[in-house]
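Weekend entry, working from home. Most of the wet-lab plans are on hold until the incubator is repaired, so I used the time to fold the two sequences that have been sitting in the queue since the last round of cloning. Logging both here for the record. First:
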Amino acid sequence: MKSDRSVVEELTPPQDQATAIAQSLAAPSSGTVANGGAGPAVQVPGGGHSVGILCAVALLSAIAWGLHVRAASKAAVAHATQSAAIISVNVVHPVEGSKADDLTLPGNVEAFTDTPIFSRTNGYLKKWYFDIGARVHKGDLLAEVETPETDQQLDQSRAELERMQANADLAGVTSKRWQALLAKHAVSQQEADQAQSNYIAAQATVDACKANVRRLQQLQSYERIVAPFDGVITARNTDIGDLIDAGSGSTNPRELFHLAAVSRLRVYVAVPEVYSDSIRDGASVTLTQDSDPGRVIPGAIVRNARAIDHSTRTLNVEVDVDNAKSVLRPGAYVFVHFHLPAIGNTVTIPSNTLLFRSEGLRVGVVHGGRVRLVPVTIGHDFGNSVEITSGLTAADEVILDPSDSLVNAMAVHPNPGGLRGQS
């Protein structure tokens, strides 16, 4: 299509023609034609008639030129009006994938094994060997408790055991004698049976005394408080001379130490119900924390509750983390990044591209310079952007801030160099 300037130039007479017409109008009316002073004048027969013809031609040319200029101006105005009627729109290309493919949720770090350590016997703390922050191994002696009452009870039970053992020995000898006399018919059967029963009862008493001695020996062994597993002492709540009550015997037992296994940690995460179907045991995750945001810590999903909590509508998920280098600490607040499986043909577009129409949600797409209103389905709403699960591809040109007057087949002019939508 020719531009407005080209149309005007075609309708404008050449400069030489205009000059010739002007010179003709300025010539003398007589039949004598000057020769420019170079020689005698030339006599033109019928000069007045020729001048009239020239004047008529010049007038017609001027009228024709004016008509053409007016027509060209009208055409230029019509073309400009038609061009202005085509609106210009900003377009973006959808981004492949979705934010939902990377789900980030807060998590609480807990020690793999975490336990308070109480005394199993009553007494006084004689000495402690480890303070907070100390790393201990299974079987290490943490503290010693003096138990004078238990020691005396053990001595008493041992003496009682010796007495009962002596009585049992005498009852055994007596029973054997009565059995020998019974064979000679020197005693009655009743007397022999009575001696045998006394021996059996004495043996049972000895066994009871032995069990009591073992019980007191076990209580005495609790004077030595040892670490039940490898870990770190996270609390010490006692000191030398403190009165110690057995943890299971007092109303408000006081823990002596708190021990946590930190070489491997558990992270518990509450996953919203909408994402629960995407959680798979054994899947890899990554962790970050505000104290060191640049460090990415690998982990793995080991188990989940397999039930939705009624109060929070979430799924409790456990993530285990290898903490051999002590990167994390029990009780820390971390962010767990779940890499969920991507949904096919999912794209992300800005929220200001959506059109809410009576027939449903629509998006304006430019195709061949014309608008096409495409129905779309939203997967997740991220605020400033939305996940589209059907209706769009990454190659589409989506209109930003569409007007309510946008209709199908409307001619538009998309701004060149459309940027990718921000996800």
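Second, folded right after the first finished:
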Amino acid sequence: MSRIRGFVAACLALAALTVGSLAFEPAAAMADEVGVTKDQIVLGGYGPITGPAAYIGLGSRDGTELAIKEINDAGGIHGRKLKLLFEDDGFSPSKALAAVKKLVEQDRVFMMMGLSGSNPTVGTVAYLKQAKVPTYIVLASAPQVTHPFDRYMFRGGATESARYGELNAEYLVDFLQARRIAMLSGTDENAKNEGDNTEKILEKWYGVKLMMRAEFKVGDKDFTPQLLQVKGVNPDFIIALAQVPEISIMLRQARELGIRQTIMGSPASLDNAVIASAGLNAEGYTGGWLAGLFLDSTHPDMVKFREAWAKLHPDAPKGRPNLFDQLGYTETYVVAEALKRAGPELTREKLVDALETIENFKVSDIATPRTFTKWHHIGNFNMQYMVVLDQHYVPLRFDPHRESEILKEYRN
């Protein structure tokens, strides 16, 4: 009998041990998050580093890598170092989607940094939402990023394209008192969205209809036909929504055709490279700037950024760093702040929760504040408008007063 009791006790002990092991194993598995090890957090990033828009991806990638170096040199995030895996999307939606799938499924990154323009980004959004990969879009203004609302998609430096329309309309009509307006816009996602929304809000808020609108493609080098249409209607003001290479050519060709009216560009084309290329033809060129300070500012924070960037890139071409370097840098610090708040037991869900606690955060005065909530993930609602005077971008004292209709939609 004692032998039987001993056998039963041994079986019960073994069963308890087995149950305990089974209970322990899932918990241990849950402690391992994709892209996170005891000493590393792997971030994915994509953008164009080849093709006509390469300056976008090169800038955003280099700015991001500078921030990562500084963060890692300071000890990382809860003892973990950040690592960026970057893929070239060639400014193509299909290539961007392939790049993102590789980063998620093969490289198994923890989160995604969207370091490309609107056109490629649109090709990735549906996949990333379905995969529930936390994604921080640094540059793209395409509405699909944050509209409709999705828990895993955040927009940083670039505001939503509908907001560009609101800000541009208020700047043009309330600040510059413009009424006779012509528009040239690219057919790419970014330029088309900004143009459509600017045209819509001009009419909705102020009853102002464009005198004419003509389109062009990224990579075009002759804008004479479109500019002659502009000249034919003789507007008071011209909106030209293009990338840096196109606006540089357009400014020169417009002045050669005797067009002297003020030309306003998009945030994507407010760049020192425009002045370097167009020279005196850029005088009076204006547009919105998405960062806190312009790149040639003598403010200590900007001087510190430029010096750190130049140390990593001593042989950089003229026109760098650019806006995309600056935004890649500042937005990486926003993500780093959220990673810190998420705590040492890092998961994707905790990162999303932490991002939603970000309020008026900026790494320094080279950035504008970022705020996210549980009901909207648009971090930036403002731009600083600039004008070229004596071959430098000078800030204008424009302060928008109208509340964004985007926030009204999200609240409802």
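Plan for Monday: verify the second prediction. Residues 40-159+297-381 form a domain with the Rossmann fold fold (CATH 3.40.50.2300).
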